[in-house]
Amino acid sequence: MLRGKPQVNRHWLDLAPGDNVLVIAGKDRGKQGEVLRTLPDKGQIVVKGVNILKRHTKAGQSRGGTRAIQGGVVDFEAPLNYSNVMLVCPSCNRPTRIKHTVLESGKRAIVCRHCDEPYERLKKTEVQ
Ligand SMILES: [Zn+2]
Question: How sure is the predictor about 128, in pLDDT bands with cuts at 50, 70 and 90?
């Protein structure tokens, strides 16, 4: 059975920690925040102040590797799907779709579609 091109399930995430993004879908639509973490394997991203969930813990209960000393409710940022956010261009300050380019130096960069300003991407995602 022909199914067209094979789907390459490997994202080269355009976003990296420290970038400013706008949420375009979900309950936090319209919020802007800084990228805290990217989860390239899952295509997910954690944005500061966005998608806050509450985790209820009991004292002494260990969950997810962290042992709660006190019981209570902990706010935490849950990962969002990568496709639910847009990069906010650092040059023109508008949420933008991006295109990829390769600089003369051979480095990869992303380019804002509004102002055509290249935005060199250091692969910070490797430092997680
Ligand atoms: Zn721009």
Answer: very low
